[in-house]
Amino acid sequence: MVCGGFTCSKNALCALNVVYMLVGLLLIAVAAWGKGFGLVSSIHIIGGVIALGVFLLLIAMVGLPCKNLGNCTSCGDLMLNHATEALKILGGVGLFFSFSEILGVWLAVRYRNQKDPRANPSAFL
Question: Which residue windows are transmembrane per the record (predicted)?
């Protein structure tokens, strides 16, 4: 079998995910080391690098296949189902805030066009 077949691609992707896991762990370790020795004083930079390392580590873990290849569902299908549910919920939340924003604009226009009863009646606005 030539390289470039399914087995070769699967092994290459597994190796790439292992490298990404190592890079994620390295990012976390370097950020913690830099903070521990006082090389970096900004907690925002340290937090960002650690968050990036954790995110890369989690994505690399998701990318590794199951050990039992017979009854393993693909991660893509599971992520697609979860994303579909999340997008439905986010769509409802977005609609709610959109309609509340329209209500706020309407109230602002009504308030803007009202005259202040405490103001001088001969004043311009």
Answer: 12-33, 45-66, 87-109
